[in-house]
Design brief:
Shape: globular
Number of helices: 11
Number of strands: 9
Largest sheet: 6 strands, parallel
Helix content: 25-40%
């Protein structure tokens, strides 16, 4: 823990020196020079800058053939009408083919070579972090470009061009496959939150980027980091329920701000 105490001293001195000059981006950039362990949580906002729609109707409006988002994207629908679920997800995957990683995705991927440890947790299922080069991404809500057997749980990776999905049936047990994403009424992948929480408790700086901090349990990770003494940085165009907890809240597009850091 000696390294973490040294970093805390650096935080205190930096904020003292820069309290009367410089902006918050400069403060965070200076702290990053001595940080060793970084944890990042990203949400829909970072992918919105790549043109990824939320796919959610507003005010209870229908999003797919008269069905609400929480109906068509539910565990119940997998059991009752899996072809309809696949039709919906294939449509979404078709839209995502035109979306590419933005500067924020690429900058975070480059951080892997910059710091002793980088843990990236994302609530997004679009796969853009992986496309940008990030490794070992903790995808707490799954990945829309992956399918899973409903019987034996074997995973199948799909390319972004595999629309409609392939395969339809498991090549091992011949059972149907389903999207490997967390649907309404389902738990997170085993161990996903625990890995994120461990990284949050050990990091020097925790970044929350493009998330409203409303979807739990992932939204609890910044709180874990703060309790453990990490420096908490929020990057989001608007204020969120998390903003008051952060040491620094940087308002603006993630692609612009993360690149400056």
């Amino acid at each position: 823990m000696k390294g973490k105490y040294s970093f805390h001293n650096k935080v205190f001195k930096t904020l003292q020196v820069m309290s009367q000059k410089g902006n918050d981006v400069e403060k965070v950039s200076d702290l990053l020079k001595s940080a060793k362990r970084i944890a990042v949580l990203t949400g829909a906002g970072i992918s919105a800058e790549s043109g990824v729609p939320t796919f959610r109707g507003g005010g209870g409006t229908a999003v797919w053939k008269g069905m609400r988002f929480d109906k068509i994207s539910s565990a119940e629908m997998v059991r009752s009408d899996l072809p309809a679920v696949w039709e919906w997800f294939d449509y979404r995957r078709g839209v995502l083919r035109a979306c590419e990683p933005n500067p924020a995705h690429f900058a975070i991927a480059e951080w892997q070579e910059r710091f002793e440890s980088l843990t990236l947790v994302t609530q997004n299922i679009d796969g853009l972090h992986r496309a940008a080069g990030s490794r070992d991404v903790i995808e707490v809500h799954g990945n829309i470009h992956r399918s899973r057997c409903v019987n034996c749980s074997k995973l199948f990776q799909m390319s972004r061009d595999d629309v409609p999905h392939d395969p339809d049936m498991c090549k091992v047990c011949k059972s149907p496959v389903r999207p490997d994403v967390v649907l309404f009424g389902e738990m997170l992948p085993e161990g996903a939150y625990e890995k994120g929480a461990e990284a949050a408790a050990l990091c020097d700086i925790f970044f929350t980027i493009g998330t409203s901090a409303l979807v739990y349990p992932a939204a609890a990770l910044p709180e874990v980091a703060k309790r453990a003494g990490a420096f908490l940085v929020e990057i989001n165009p608007e204020e969120t329920p998390l903003s008051h907890l952060c040491d620094v809240s940087l308002k603006g597009p993630a692609g612009e701000i993360v690149s400056k850091l």
